[in-house]
C-alpha cells in the first residue's frame, strides 16, 4: 500500500505540473497533451526509445496496476484488522489523531469515485462532456468556465489532499522513516506541504479559467 500510494502521489505531482502549462497558452497545453500520447511531430515522450504512442499505454498500465494493488492492499489490511480485533472490544479508544487518518477508508472510496468521474470527463468519454474533445485546452476551458464544475473539483480535491496528507506520512512511516519524534515531525510537515502544494497547484488553473485569466 505504501509503495503504490507513493507512485500515485508522484503521478499527481507530474499531472499538476502539466496542468500549469495552460497558463502558457492553448498551443503549449495541447502540444504537451499530444507529446504525452506520442502524437507530436517529434514522436512524443521517450521517442525513439519507445515507438511513438507506446509510452502513454505503458504509463497507464503501471498506474492502473498501482490503483488496483492499492485497493487490494486496503481491502486486505481492513480484513486482517477486523480478524485481529475479534467480534467486539472490551474498551474502545480512537488512536488516530486527525480526521483524515480516521476516515482513510471512506475517503479512499470517495477518491476512487472522483477518479472515475475525472477519467470519464477528460479521457474515456470526453465527447459526452465537451463540444471539442480534440483539444485538451478547449476541454479545460469548457469545463471550468462553469462555477458548479469548479466547485465539484474544489470539494473533491479537498478529500484527495486529505487522503494524501495522511497517506504520505503513513507510507514513509511504513517504510521505516518514523524512527523518532524528530522524524515524525519532519514527515508530518512534509505531508502537509505536499498536500497543500497539490491542492493549490490543481485548483489554480480551474480558478484562472473561471475568472477569465485563461480562455
Number of helices: 8
Summarize the helix and strand pattern as letters: HHHHHHHH
- What Rg do the Cα atoms give? 20 Å
**What is the global morphology?**
globular
Give the N-terminus to C-terminus distance in angstroms. Answer: 39 Å
Unreliable spans are none
Average of the residue pLDDT scores: 90
Which SSEs are present, and which pair or pack?
Layout: H1 2-19, H2 26-36, H3 54-85, H4 99-102, H5 104-124, H6 136-144, H7 147-177, H8 181-210
List keywords for this structure.
215 residues; mainly alpha
What does this structure look like?
- The model has no long low-confidence stretch (mean pLDDT 90).
- The longest helix has 32 residues.
- This protein has 8 helices and no strands.
- Helix 1 packs antiparallel against helix 7 and helix 7 packs antiparallel against helix 8.
- It has one domain.
- It is globular.
- It is an all-alpha fold.
Amino acid at each position: 500500500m505504501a509503495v503504490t500510494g507513493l507512485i500515485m502521489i508522484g503521478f499527481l505531482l507530474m499531472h499538476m505540473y502539466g496542468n500549469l502549462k495552460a497558463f502558457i497558452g492553448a498551443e503549449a497545453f495541447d502540444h504537451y497533451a499530444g507529446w504525452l500520447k506520442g502524437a507530436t511531430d517529434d514522436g512524443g515522450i521517450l521517442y525513439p526509445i519507445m515507438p511513438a504512442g507506446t509510452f502513454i499505454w505503458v504509463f497507464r498500465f503501471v498506474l492502473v496496476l498501482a490503483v488496483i494493488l492499492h485497493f487490494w492492499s486496503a481491502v486486505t489490511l481492513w480484513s486482517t484488522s477486523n480478524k485481529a480485533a475479534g467480534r467486539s472490544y472490551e474498551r474502545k479508544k480512537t488512536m488516530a489523531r486527525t480526521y483524515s487518518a480516521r476516515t482513510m477508508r471512506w475517503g479512499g472510496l470517495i477518491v476512487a469515485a472522483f477518479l472515475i468521474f475525472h477519467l470519464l470527463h477528460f479521457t474515456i468519454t470526453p465527447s459526452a462532456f465537451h463540444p471539442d474533445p480534440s483539444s485538451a485546452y478547449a476541454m479545460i476551458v469548457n469545463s471550468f468556465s462553469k462555477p458548479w464544475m469548479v466547485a465539484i473539483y474544489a470539494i473533491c480535491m479537498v478529500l484527495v489532499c486529505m487522503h494524501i496528507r495522511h497517506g504520505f506520512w503513513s507510507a514513509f512511516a511504513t517504510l521505516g522513516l518514523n524512527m523518532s519524534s524528530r522524524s515524525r515531525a519532519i514527515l508530518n510537515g512534509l505531508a502537509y506541504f505536499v498536500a497543500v502544494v497539490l491542492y493549490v497547484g490543481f485548483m489554480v488553473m480551474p480558478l484562472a479559467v473561471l475568472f477569465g485569466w485563461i480562455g
